[in-house]
Design goal:
The structure is a single chain. The protein is of the alpha/beta class. The chain folds into 2 domains: 3-173, Nitrogenase molybdenum iron protein domain (Rossmann fold, 3-Layer(aba) Sandwich); 193-361, Nitrogenase molybdenum iron protein domain (Rossmann fold), CATH 3.40.50.1980. Helix content is 38%, strand content 15%. The chain contains 13 helices and 14 strands. The protein has a 5-stranded mixed β-sheet with strand order 9-7-12-13-14, with helices on both faces. A 4-stranded parallel β-sheet has the order 4-3-5-6, sandwiched between helices. The chain has a 3-stranded antiparallel β-sheet with strand order 8-11-10, with no helix packed on it. α7 (213-220) packs parallel to α11 (305-324). The protein is globular and about 60 Å long. The protein starts with a helix and ends with a helix.
Length: 365
């Protein structure tokens, strides 16, 4: 039996002592828990990780991965998450404040994780996973890297989760849903001329670069990221990272986007029309957008995280394709696809109203 199962308060005190000592020398991790099949798996980063299958108690950092686990029917195994489920009761029924294991994927509550007696901790590759793996090793808690936001690795990630939770059939069903819409996009958009897209994160003038899942979503939807040429030496710059990079208003204007897409914080219930109207009105009034093809043609959009990020962002790619290439997307309703993701894979009611255009809030469409 793993030593941390019986360590109780002594184990937690040991953890606190270790965290308080910057020069702590970590001991080899204890043996894996008995009662399952000890297996070495390969994670998102190619790391070999020893786990006991099936996983029965896990802590998950990053909502995308939590959604995957729920989609394959393994949510009962989740004992810890990085968000307060009580703030989103309609979307996360059963996720209680007592399951909070940190305030984000780079701010972990290690004492809470040890107390949850986790079999494993899931983290994406852009998190503080190296520190987590080091801190949790003495307690026999492996860290597994699964990057659920990666549109291009959806099938790989879901297949791995199906193996880890002994849910291969449900994982295959989820992958079939994703693959159908990915292949539909490839077929419908074959030969199109990509449209130039300025994609803005929640913060003003915060865009995305190559290496971001948002960048891949734009390209999959038949667009070209107007800032996709920027390369960050070493992966980090004083102006941000690939997920959230600060740009100058004049540079946005100079790159002449055909469409502007503004992302807003995710919430299961759609944003009120008045909120979107105010946001889009202010966006269109920016000096940095004056004279751009996007503004002249009214191709200014507000997109909720929920539609943007459904099923590794495949729903977001469908919506972008509909905006950029409507002639190729006839008969496809991205919000209906999102409804299937919500109802059939997340077990919650379908919603609509996850986006607005500048034209629609002005009553022109």
């Amino acid at each position: 039996m793993r030593s941390d199962r019986n360590a109780g308060s002594g184990g937690r005190r040991a953890l606190l002592r270790a965290l308080g000592s910057a020069g702590a020398a970590w001991l080899a991790g204890p043996a894996l828990a008995q009662g399952g099949a000890a297996t070495v798996i390969t994670d998102d980063l190619g790391r070999s990780v020893e786990v006991t299958l099936p996983l029965k108690r896990v802590v998950v950092f990053n909502r995308y991965t939590t959604e995957f686990i729920r989609a394959i029917g393994a949510m009962p195994a989740v004992v810890g998450v990085d968000f307060d489920g009580s703030k989103y009761p309609d979307y996360w029924p059963g996720v209680t404040p007592g399951m909070l294991a940190g305030s984000g994927q780079s701010s972990l509550n290690y004492e809470a994780i040890v107390g949850m007696q986790a079999d494993a901790v899931f983290m994406p590759r852009n998190s503080d996973w190296k520190k987590a793996a080091e801190v949790l090793k003495p307690f026999g808690i492996p860290v597994i890297i699964v990057t659920g936001w990666d549109l291009l690795k959806h099938e790989w990630n879901v297949t791995l989760l199906g193996r880890l939770f002994y849910q291969p059939e449900r994982a295959a069903r989820l992958n079939a849903f994703y693959r159908h819409w990915r292949d539909t996009l490839r077929s419908r958009l074959q030969g199109v001329t990509p449209k130039r897209v300025y994609f803005e994160e929640v913060g003003n003038y915060k865009t995305v670069l190559q290496g971001s899942g948002w960048h891949d979503m734009i390209e999959t939807g038949g667009g070209v990221n107007v800032f996709g040429d920027i390369q960050l030496a070493g992966g980090i710059s004083p102006r941000g990272n690939v997920q959230n990079f600060e740009v100058d208003p004049e540079e946005v204007q100079a790159r002449r986007p055909d469409a502007v897409i503004k992302l807003q914080p995710g919430q299961y219930l759609p944003h009120p029309r008045a909120f979107s109207a105010d946001l889009l009105g202010k966006l269109a009034a920016r000096p940095g957008l004056q004279g751009t093809p996007a503004l002249r043609r009214g191709q200014i959009y507000h997109l909720s995280y929920y539609l943007a990020s459904g099923c590794s962002k495949i729903t977001g790619a469908l919506q972008i394709a509909q905006w950029l290439h409507p002639e190729r997307m006839a008969g496809i309703d991205p919000q209906a696809v999102m409804g299937t993701w919500l109802k059939d894979f997340q077990g919650v009611a379908a919603q609509r109203g996850y986006w607005y255009s500048l034209a629609s809030v002005k009553g022109q469409a």
